[in-house]
Design brief:
binds fe (ii) ion, alpha/beta, TIM Barrel, 254 residues, three-stranded parallel beta sheet, 10 helices, 9 strands
Length: 254
């Protein structure tokens, strides 16, 4: 609890620059969050979605592409339920004159049902080519069909982005896996809060490894609720975050 509670209780003022630094966050496109209300473990009501988006706008973000979980068992989300809620949020943003572009894609769990979704071909994607797809893995064990899924995605013309590779315990002690994934053309997305040690010290260590070895292609907040937004400014001040910003990140081009 120590580090987390200290960070959590600081209640940093959003959008405020450090008095000792002239760092300006170069990232203007945020593409990993859970802001479609009531569909996963993120925002529960529209007011929460709007409050978070207002804070992203205050932080200087130009665009937010939110990514609700899609899982075969828990979260059976698709275009059919996500797009109408996205449109409701857009309407509120406009009514409240909050200047931020807002869109929705998804964060797909690599589970037994995902291969079928790839075959059906109507994945929620993003990027100028509309072919980038965000995927996540179980935290404790690598899924047995990972290779098959990556192959299927790439054959179908998608560019897979692996969400928060630093959080998978089984890769922490097998870091050559990160290099293998990169060699196969998989993009890696770092969670900004990992820099702070928000999830754990081992996760922060792997995050530093990934950044120091220039393995990161994109950064994302993975914001689920307002408490994440309250500590995000601290993460933006962290030296690992600053270092990742020196890499050629793809965020602003999506
Ligand atoms: Fe996520």
């Amino acid at each position: 609890m120590g580090l987390f509670s200290n960070i959590f209780n600081r209640k940093t003022e959003l959008g405020k620059k450090s008095s000792t630094s002239s760092f300006v966050n170069p990232i203007q496109v945020e593409f990993h969050s859970h802001l479609i209300y009531g569909v996963d473990d993120g925002c529960e009501v529209i007011d929460q979605s709007i409050a978070i988006l207002k804070k992203f706008a205050d932080l200087g973000m130009r665009k937010v592409i939110t990514t609700p979980h899609v899982m075969s068992d828990f979260y059976k989300n698709s275009q059919a339920n996500i797009y109408p809620l996205r449109d409701e949020i857009r309407k509120r943003l406009s009514e409240e004159n909050i200047q931020i572009e807002f869109d929705a894609a998804a964060e797909y769990m690599v589970d037994e049902g995902f291969e079928k979704k790839i075959e059906e071909g109507n994945l929620l994607t993003f990027g100028k080519d509309n072919k980038h797809v965000l995927i996540e893995l179980p935290f404790m064990t690598e899924p047995p069909n990972l290779n098959a899924v990556l192959f299927k995605l790439q054959i179908a013309g998608y560019t897979p982005i692996l969400a928060h590779p630093e959080r998978y315990m089984y890769y922490g002690n097998e870091r050559e896996k990160f290099h293998e994934l990169k060699d196969r053309g998989i993009l890696l997305q770092l969670n900004i809060l990992s820099c702070l040690g928000y999830y754990s010290k081992p996760v922060a260590d792997v995050a530093a490894y990934l950044v120091n070895n220039k393995l990161i292609d994109l950064v994302g907040s993975d914001v689920h609720h307002i408490r994440h937004m309250q500590i995000l400014p601290d993460a933006l001040e962290h030296k690992i975050y600053r270092k990742v910003c020196e890499l050629e990140l793809l965020n602003n081009y999506l």
